[in-house]
């Protein structure tokens, strides 16, 4: 009975592992197909066949919608302003740090471009006078700390004596 139960558990475990391996194999095949479609579209674009490039990249985007390079490639062949905006929004959703895509999106939407920081007017040096250092000498700081500690200790002892006298009485 126990052996049959162990066999059942092991068969379920191996069946699950086989399913995972099949899914991984399908993903690898799909990735290879996406790569082939990207290359096919790039060759078509280089040869001037924009329609074939568009079709290849569109199918690749359907298979792998989270691939930034597919959307950037599609951007090369799309002519509709609305479609270009969607492509750029997808690129930014995938990679929010893509500055070029953000700049192109602002241009497509008719927003003014922000000047790059390198071209910004140089800032004038500050005319503020430096604040003189108020830092004490280390020996002075050490002595101040010691005296403060001794003072707090003495106050604690005196308070302890007074409280014990009040609590237990003078006798």
Please summarize what this structure is:
The mean pLDDT is 79. It is built from 6 helices and no strands. The termini are far apart.
Could you say which overall geometry the principal axes of the C-alpha atoms support? elongated
Helicity, in percent?
over 70%
Instruction: Extract low-pLDDT stretches.
Output: none
- Spatial separation of the terminal alpha carbons: 85 Å
The fraction of residues in strands falls at under 5%
Distinct helical segment count: 6
Q: Which class do the helix and strand fractions yield?
A: mainly alpha
Instruction: Report mean pLDDT, rounded to a whole number.
Output: 79
Please compute the radius of gyration using only Cα atoms.
37 Å
Number of strands: 0
User: What letter string, H or E per element, gives the SSE order?
Assistant: HHHHHH
Reported for the largest beta sheet, the result is: none
Structure description:
It is built from six helices and no strands. The model has no long low-confidence stretch (mean pLDDT 79). The chain is mainly α. The chain has helices at 2-46, 50-63, 68-77, 81-94, 99-108, 138-168. Helix content is 73%, strand content 0%. It starts with a helix and ends with a helix.
């Amino acid at each position: 009975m126990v052996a049959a139960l162990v066999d059942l558990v092991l068969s379920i475990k191996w069946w699950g592992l086989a399913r995972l391996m099949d899914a991984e194999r399908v993903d690898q095949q799909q990735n290879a197909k996406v790569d082939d479609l990207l290359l096919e579209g790039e060759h078509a674009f280089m040869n001037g066949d924009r329609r074939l490039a568009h079709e290849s990249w569109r199918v690749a985007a359907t298979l792998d919608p989270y691939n930034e390079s597919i959307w950037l490639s599609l951007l090369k062949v799309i002519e509709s302003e609305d479609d270009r905006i969607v492509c750029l929004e997808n690129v930014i959703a995938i990679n929010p740090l893509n500055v070029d895509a953000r700049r192109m999106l602002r241009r497509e939407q008719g927003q003014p471009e922000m000047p790059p920081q390198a071209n910004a007017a140089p800032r004038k040096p500050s005319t503020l006078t430096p604040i003189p250092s108020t830092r004490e000498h280390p020996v002075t700081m050490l002595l101040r700390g010691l005296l403060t500690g001794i003072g707090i200790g003495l106050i604690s002892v005196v308070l302890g004596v007074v409280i014990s006298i009040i609590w237990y009485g003078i006798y």
